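Lab meeting, action items carried over

1. Structure of the four-component assembly. Owner: GW. Status: complete.
Input record:
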Amino acid sequence: MRDVASTDRNAVPARTGCESCGLWRVCFPGLVASAAEQRLNGMRLRRIRVPGGKTLYRSGDRVESFYMIRSGCIKELDDSHSRDGAVINFALPGEMLSLQCLGPAVSNTRTVAVEASSLCVVPWDAFSELGTRSPQVAAEFVRLIARSGLAARELLTLIRDREAIERVSGFLLNVSARLQSRGVRGREFRLAMNRDDIANYLGLRSETVSRCFTELARRNLIRVRAKRVQILNSPELRKVSLNA
Amino acid sequence: MRDVASTDRNAVPARTGCESCGLWRVCFPGLVASAAEQRLNGMRLRRIRVPGGKTLYRSGDRVESFYMIRSGCIKELDDSHSRDGAVINFALPGEMLSLQCLGPAVSNTRTVAVEASSLCVVPWDAFSELGTRSPQVAAEFVRLIARSGLAARELLTLIRDREAIERVSGFLLNVSARLQSRGVRGREFRLAMNRDDIANYLGLRSETVSRCFTELARRNLIRVRAKRVQILNSPELRKVSLNA
DNA sequence: CGTTGAGTTGATGGAACTCAAATAGCGTGG
DNA sequence: CCACGCTATTTGAGTTCCATCAACTCAACG
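Predicted assembly:
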């Protein structure tokens, strides 16, 4: 139950095991509670592979499962205002999708694979049953759902009242920290998304994002070559992101 | 259990009853389930009054209760980046506070009364107990918590990639709709917050907010005099807010 | 009637957008 | 392996929008 056969052509961001997965703390109490039938197998765990550019689910769809990113990158889009969708969040390896749908059950976002991605799929009812048996698990749920709403708030403070270079610096540090916390090297990584997606996410234009990358490289804070990014001076980069 | 003695000097936005309160759908199943001890009285419901400018709770505080706004206006501030706090949300009459804290229990926002406000205070444990007894109530909880994260997302789409006049128009429509949905007249109302708070919320400067008000008034879409706002042409105002 | 604070209006500069052109990556097929 | 073509990205020049700073209005209040 650890690794899956890989069919990747290009270098894909690291594959993560269950320990680094956001659901681990939910699974764990369940597994402790009763070893046999609450194993991952018993929960009808599935793995799926989504090709880059393909839609996972749409706004309005009834979503009945959690999704955990194992590799790749999924973007969540809000279609309510702009025609081609505004990026709300990039879900990175080890992170979760669709949590906020499980109250209303129907999704308010469209999710699209930024690149070929591998996901774990866990039916909601399996977990919900787990929650009714263990208040510990139920509490963990509430915590996770509450935390899932935090991404939007973080993005809000990342872009509101901040100028372009601050946003881009903050974005890089954010991605770096999230990769690091999942056990992936955060100093040097590959951005799965293109400049347009980043610009859309940060409320900028791709040209501006590009200029900021160039400027940060000129200051020797980062190194960029297309999608590959290397963070050379993260304390200084943080200062830039905080306008300090 | 309906009205409280009023000590307001100036005209304060309408006081709302339990029916228009965001918690009603949570209370209701509980009340149905067992009439006697789960009444509002049984839940140790308290009413408090917060003077304008006073802090309700701070970031880092352990929050053990829900708060429901009965009258007035409470702003939620994020202190993580700016010195004097960035406005995340304005809680209007009939709306709730501190829901997202009840997973982590410790608040990540500071809440300050924009004007003298009256609140209902309900201890979390009373509800949590209610939830363990009724899965219906528990589900309603999850729904409410998931929805509480939506405010940040809405604000995000309100300001990202939108110019000043679009933000201001969207803000007015948003406030209008929220007042209306709580049974208050939404065509003509009084903004509790000053220009600085609005500007902070929208990621603008107070001068810009002022200019936008003036411009919208010039186009005969609204009428403004200090804090009093009248919406004259909401379809057209919507067009402006959507950049259409 | 002067003071105070919120709100409005005006003038100016800078940051980011726009449009346009140049360049770099990258997959494809010779 | 290299040339080709396509797309993504970078760079440049001009324009727009908003922040800034400052002056001004207005109402409340002693």
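2. GW to write a short summary for the group page. Key points so far: The interface with chain B takes residues 78, 80-82, 86, 88, 99-104, 132, 135, 138-139, 141-150, 152-153, 155-157, 159-161, 200, 203, 242 of chain A (CB under 8 Å). Confidence is low (pLDDT under 50) at residues 1-14, 30-41 of chain A.
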